[in-house]
Amino acid sequence: RREARETTAMAENTADFVAGWASGAVATLMTQPVDLVITRLQAGTARSVSGAISAEPLTALWRGMGPLLAVQPISNALMFVGYGAGKSYAERNQLSGGSALLPVFLGGCAGGAAQSLAQSPAELLKVRMQLSGHTHTPSARTLLSEGGLSRGMTATLWRDVLPHGVWFASYDLAKNYLQKRQ
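== Mitochondrial carrier protein ==
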């Protein structure tokens, strides 16, 4: 019986990982041009989009995507695996406090934390590449002298942990509400 539960949990984790990986890859490819424009606007180095396209090749819209494309699918997969593991842990250890949403919220927080660990270093590299205008990755020596790949990790955790808990709980609440209405 225990073996069957472990096999089922492994299958669920594998499915979560594959689905998360695929959705992360597609999302990265689709959102990179917008992300580049936002990064340049925030840095105050923005040119108009049409000006940037005419001055640079169209492929410049995907500049800095390499590190993110390498990590985003894995990061997304870790989010869903972390969510499933966190939710299961909360349910097994009766951390619900009488609420069906609390395990979902805690699972979302775990998923957000797992995602941040992979995402933060990749985002640091991506932003550096977008702002520099070069396609090369900053050297390890430069990154280490400026705080290493963990620079920005605290901000990424703040951005991802609680909001992912709220996102998963909101999604679950809305889904259950709509299913009851049918």
